[in-house]
Amino acid sequence: MLSLCLNPHGTRVIQRLIEFLKVDRVIDKFIECVEPIIINLVKDINGNHIIQKFVLLVKKNEFIYETLISNYMIVATDKHGCCVLQKCIEVSNNMYKVQFSIK
Fold first, then answer.
1. What's the confidence (pLDDT) of residue 41?
2. Most exposed: 27, 30, 55, 98, by fewest CB within 10 Å?
3. How far apart are CA 12 and CA 18, in angstroms?
């Protein structure tokens, strides 16, 4: 999954797939695959777009926010991670905005 997500063509395929994630068990399976590699994706020129797309289109995205909050300095000081962080803060609910501001 990681090599597919970091590939310029593969990342487009995964982003397109995210647009069609509607069934909870399919979303859960996708999360299971992506959750262990979130930081790798956030810091990658291609992979960061997958995280941004997921946050925008899928409601079940708390695991992304929790990972970003736990790894705030790593993400915030990375070129691509900073962009992901900004997008996540922009579209997050107030609870996560408060948690980000405390960091």
1. 98
2. 98
3. 10
Helices (H), the chain: 2-6, 8-18, 24-34, 38-42, 47-57, 62-70, 72-76, 79-91, 94-102
pLDDT digits (tens, 9 = 90+) for 9-67: 999 999 999 999 999 999 999 999 999 999 999 999 999 999 999 999 999 999 999 99
Q: Kindly list the domain boundaries of the chain, sorted by start residue.
A: 2-102
- pLDDT higher than threshold 90 for residue 92: no
- One-letter amino acid for residue 46 of the chain: N
- Beta-carbon contacts of 66 under 8 Å, excluding residues fewer than 6 positions away, are none
- In whole angstroms, what is the distance from residue 84 CA to residue 43 CA? 9
Residue 20 near residue 33 (C-beta atoms within 8 A)? no
Q: What does pTM read for this prediction?
A: 0.88
Nearest to 20 by CA among 35, 7, 30: 30
